[in-house]
Amino acid sequence: MRYFITLSYDGTPFHGWQIQPNGISVQEVLQKGLSTILRKDIEVVGAGRTDTGVHARTMVAHFDCDLQLDCPQTAYRLNRIMPPTIAIRKMERVSDDMHARFSAKSRTYHYYVHTEKDPFLRHYSYRTPYALDFDMMNKAAEILMEYEDFGAFCKSNSDAKTTICHVTAARWHQVSETSWYFEITANRFLRNMVRAVVGTLVDVGRGRLTLDGFRRVIEEGKRTGAGESMPGNALFLEKIEY
After folding, report:
1. How far apart are CA 131 and CA 206, in angstroms?
2. Residue 152 has what pLDDT?
3. Contact predicate 220/192, CB 8 Å
């Protein structure tokens, strides 16, 4: 029997979602918790891989178990042994052909920036030291939806078999006079893609890259042509649609 778990986590203390040989990961903590309360070895499969320090307001994972579980009670018990940085939102039985990763139709990320020093945002938003033209950045963001190959924003030496992604939304939203977030939705994302896209959009906002230049970065498909990868602490996996 297959079960889906919906959870949220603060990625600050974790070396990303995926189990690592040299650091604690969200997947490892979740697997150990499930194995403890179910008294058998459980493996979980996530909807995606978030990098070190990246957060998830919504992450979905599945696991298989031959027990008929009381989902609300199991979720409650699991939540009690999770650290404060992980919250179990829901557990549900799904059909055996449902897959947390491959059945997902879209994923949405938010990247947060603020333009003035704020001690309460520093852990979850990037403070830009530059004045940014968000109108120009939104014009560049619209260009993303004209393309499907995003190799320019893929981490070097990635194991991705294809760099094709279908971006259906990409826009900067203003939260206050000093804070904004970038929202992007696609069927899939490449390793480090969102942070590289944001870094390149920031170059546009600073006037270091024109709209035509932004277009050339995408068309040339070279990671060295795109902007720097932005810090992970301001990135949130926001939503997953099935």
Report:
1. 7
2. 96
3. no
List the catalytic residue out of 51, 97, 118, 212: 51
Strand-strand pairing, 167-174 and 86-94: unpaired
First to last CA, the chain: 19
- Find where tokens 């969102």 sit: 194
If you write DSSP's letter for every residue of 223-238 in order, what string do you get? GGGS-PPPPGGGEEEE
Q: What is the pLDDT of residue 160?
A: 74
Three-state secondary structure readout of 122-189 = CCCCEECCCCCCHHHHHHHHHHHCCCCECHHHCCCCCCCCCCECCEEEEEEEECCCCEEEEEEEECCC
Please give the pLDDT value at position 119: 94
What is the per-residue pLDDT across 124-146, written as a single tens digit (0 to 9) for each? 999 998 899 999 999 999 999 99
Consecutive H or E run containing 92: strand 86-94
Question: Does the predicted TM-score (pTM) go above 0.85?
Answer: yes
**Active-site residue 64, yes or no?**
no
pLDDT at 75: 98
